[in-house]
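thread from #wetlab-drylab

HS: before we spend reagent money on co-crystallization trials with 5-hydroxymethyl-3,4-dihydroxypiperidine, can we at least see a predicted complex? here's what I'd submit
DV: go for it
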Amino acid sequence: MPKTLKFPPGFLWGSAVSSYQVEGGIENSDWSRDYPAGKACDYYNRYEKYFDLAKELGQNIHRFSIEWSRIEPEEGKFDKAAVEHYKKMLLALRQRNIKSMVTIWHWTNPLWFARKGGWENSKSSEYFARFVKFAVPELDNLVDFWATLNEPGVLLSHGYLAGIHPPHKKSILGFAKVYGNLIKTHNAAYKIIHSFNQKAKVGIIYNATFVKSAHKDSIVEKICVKIWEYLRNRMFLNAVRNNADYLGLNYYFPDNIEFTPFKFPFIGMSNRSKEITDMGWEIFPEGIYHTLKDLKRYNLPIYITENGIADAKDAKRAKFIIDHLRWMHKAISEGVDVRGYLYWSLLDNFEWTYGFSKRFGLIEMDFGSLEARIRPSALKYAEICKSNRIILDIRY
Ligand code: IFM
């Protein structure tokens, strides 16, 4: 008999997308100006077809985001039709017996909000709260899980330190303001959703990771690892932990701290790995285990809300998924309360500043004809989703 790893009964299996990356036709957001996504996967119109494919692949949960710039295209003016659209999507998931996880903010902001200074504005959490108060009661009875913010750390690092995402700033002061405002925003949104529905399951999606050192014996690196673990993984979560019914973990790659005494700036991130994805990211499945073990401190149910690989040739994807699932299983078997796994992404999509070049999808997209084709790795993942277990001696 082949050895199998069984997952807990009721474990959720699925995949994730976000509005800007798949919907198409979003023209009123801050990202639309600098990085137009055009029709993307035309998910806004073709969602039923994609949900059918997810169902066929044995998935029982789907994560997507609602687009603030569609629902509130002008300040204080809400578009009922846009919310109705998301209602129809949620109904379509229910009809297929697929649970929903709805992200309220996945990086894109309405232009009017960006023009007011975006997340640096001291009223930003109030603007967001107004949007939440409008959208949530309309949709709540069809939503299984709410996720307030997706990876707030990426907006902070890429938008306010590195300047590579909108609003393209390099400002410590801006960073500090946005940091505080995002915490306020999550905490307020959590309370608002619970004021409508005490039983709602509301979480935050965070990309914590495993921090390791490049040299085993370096004391400097060991100290830096400790400091970075706190800054990268805990500081934000500590501030929102009391307003969360679950944690969403997005895990992709570890951080490798390296001390270079003869090279400025002396301390930084290295990537010496031979195994990398098409993004150049190190493949280190064991990292999901350590990250999960560390998140246990929060004593909250955890969902892997993203884990995935850009792999245009589909040569590494099946192994990537299975290796991560094996380490996730180990964490579960050691008492970490992981309740679901959502692969990023259901579809090849718009990978932000990289455009359409990076292929994360279980489903391959032809962005010209919009033909969607299930990749071989998706079928391997489907076997796991359908059976709730991994058969170990299969070669992937
Ligand atoms: O595509 C992104 C997603 O929007 C947020 N998490 C990481 C993914 C891959 O880069």
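DV: Residues 18, 21, 151, 250, 306, 344, 351 surround 5-hydroxymethyl-3,4-dihydroxypiperidine (CB under 6 Å).
HS: ok that's useful, forwarding to the group
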